[in-house]
Amino acid sequence: MPDTVSKSPLSQQELAFFKTHGYLILRQILDPALLARARARLWDAAPTSMHRDDPSSWVGPIPTDQESEERDNHRRGFRWQYRQIGDEPWMVQMLPKNPTVWALAEQLLGEGRLVEPSGVRGIYCTLPYGDHATTANGCHVDAHPFHFGAVAYIDDVEPGGGGFRVWPGSHRTFYYDFQTAYQREPNDQYEPDKARIGAGPSVDCYGRAGDVVLWHHRIGHMASHNTTRRIRQAVLYDFRKDDWETTQSDPPAQDMWQDWSDEIRSVQLL
Ligand SMILES: [Fe+2]
Fold it and tell me: Where would a tag sit more exposed on the chain, N or C end, judged by fewer CB atoms within 10 A?
């Protein structure tokens, strides 16, 4: 990684892509040493039936007697969410405070305008489905207040490997499908839009360890099924601007980029 990071890590083309499609994949921007540390630490919390050196033991679902409802280490079905280490400083350094990531977040929301991170969501895993049938794809919109999310892969995610799946451009519809700009009450348009958009084309954002997917808070998305043999391992963080507590209950703005930086506001859609 370079020692110095440009003040404007995203090009005009990347800004236009994000604004138009609601997501952007950045390749190889995280510190490999921290990624290796995260991959190793995950196994501190593994169910006894799973072994790091035996990929055949990784296939889901998690045996019923190994399930855990504990928030810090939630394990059920094909999902394993290890949140306990999410507030350790090196995890924050790995993703939101990575110099490139922090600089691009300021480029999007304004310099000095980000909420300081106290932690990340943790390591979210999707286990291989093996011979189990997968269900149909369908999108949803997250509805807790934030401006954009970052999904960081700490291990390689092949196509079909449980990568973050997005419905490109859907943020420009879904933004107006809620009564407020950042909270969770959908209006009458949400369900029909969700059915229509979810039946349309989507993109599997697969990638390698060290890649990061940025996504607008109102884009339609899902955590894809994992039809590969590797565990999908991702660290998630939600960026928020410092005025979110006052803007969260505003109605959606006519210009959906109203709260964003002048730079992205001035970029033309593709
Ligand atoms: Fe979601």
Answer: C
